[in-house]
């Protein structure tokens, strides 16, 4: 498996295409949002925190759409596990992708964990799976905002992201963290 390479603001993000629960394929290259595409990586069906987190996003999806933000949530789960997650977590509105390869996860700078067995949700963790990440991608395919985590806890709150979007859209606030080599400045 490859080493983690962080994505850099104002630089192109990796290509991304995944099958969707319910059929079809979602591709980042096909997105034409007014402002951003929000890519939310979750751990999988075994993660009860993911269920609560994604249900909150599902309930706020129209608020993101009003701000010109397309949304995809995805994991390395199989189709069956993703379908079970959609049903168990009552996700009615989200595009739910599955089958993210661990190589793709690494391209996006995500951490990989190994199984600890059955979780409190009653589902077994896969042998290997990616940890959470959230990215806002501009329509030109460059990174605006990104966060990755090593644990399922303390993720960015969607209500706060909505407030931040109001500010950055109104002020045309630039992506920050863009300096690649600080020794050449």
UniProtKB/TrEMBL annotation:
Residue ranges of domain Thioredoxin in the record = 7-170
* One Pfam family in the UniProt entry: AhpC-TSA
Cross-referenced InterPro entries, in alphabetical order?
A: AhpC/TSA (IPR000866), Thioredoxin-like_sf (IPR036249), Thioredoxin_domain (IPR013766)
Family annotation (SUPFAM superfamilies): Thioredoxin-like
Domain of life here? Bacteria
UniProt name for this protein: Alkyl hydroperoxide reductase
User: What species was this sequence derived from?
Assistant: Thalassospira xiamenensis
